[in-house]
Here is the input.
Amino acid sequence: MEYQPPAIPNHGDHNTIFELAHQVPLCGSADAHALSILYDIDSGTARCHVSSVLGAKYGLAVTNEQQVVSVTDRVLGHQVWYNRERSRKPQTFTQAEAQQDPTEGGQNCDFCQWQSLTAEDTFGRIERAHAVTASNLFKYCQPCHGLVLFKHHDPLSFHQQQLSDLLSCSQGWFQAAHRAHPEAVHPFFIWNCGARAGASQFHGHAQVTLSQVPFPACERLSTAAAAYASSQPGRTYYQDLIAAHRTAGLLTEAPGSSACALASLAPTKDMEVVVIGKSLESADFQHLLYVALRALIDKLGAATFNVGIFNIRVPGSDSAAPAASSQTSTDEVPVLARIVSRGKVSSRASDFGGLEVFGQASIGNTDPYGVYKALLASLSMYNQ
Ligand SMILES: [Zn+2]
Here is the structure.
């Protein structure tokens, strides 16, 4: 039986994650069931003594109390910690605000000269008006590791059609790669924008891989979704992920659209937005991914970000099978894009410390309700 999310009254009147935490648990009503299953939300007060000198320097009370909220993703195991006071934390490792372009505006950019200065896959290139594929010259993945390049240079300046072409080229690449290597059934898409996000080239580009061995995060999502359906009869993980964020007032969904976007309660890194849709080539999915990216870049000032897209399907491949086995049909396993900011360009300090490396946890710098407001503002600007 297909799970229908319960009729959920509007709880979207929270303004901060701290307000939501004070109203948890919302259990007892069916509308909050998904939220309580997926997330463990905890809050408390941390205290310390502050000397008068230290208090005067940073404007802090001598008897210091800080409210801390943690959100634990009980399905995927990630955790995030929120504390507004951390915005006052002094940053001693600083650098120029602007992202440096080492190619003199594209004059020395290999990707601007993609015809001659990028490698070509053995099965050729996929090309659209605004994007084109190349083979990654220095591969970390086999048998297929490619690049999808914008045809323009500036990585933060792209319009809807340019992004749509990037995604459509990617889908074409996965299909061509699978035809050339039928034994490889695990597709993955990542986009590192900016040096802080792991990019080695300034020019906007994504990476596409098709492998025989799945990446652990892709496998973990498929396995967790299947286990979720087994433990929650009549429900699917994806429907409850949506329901949980609708309950929290962090979901954008438009009538008639097959896609939705949510400001994640438990972001892997700062400002995480998740876009859920039917496929890489779905117009609704492409539009919402564009809206979400413009929200981070234009509304929240993110100049460096990562995108990862999960559950990509390749015709003739059973790559979505682990998750599909628990769904009513393969078509119900949605494609899921995750976008995160990688911090301020002006900070020389990494946003990946021991907490992230070893703890599978992170610090929530931006309140998800702030991310949600930016999403709404971007939606109103670009609504179809
Ligand atoms: Zn370039």
Remarks:
- Confidence is low (pLDDT under 50) at residues 1-11, 320-331.
- Residues 106, 109, 111-112, 153, 203 surround zinc ion (CB under 6 Å).
- The longest strand covers residues 39-49.
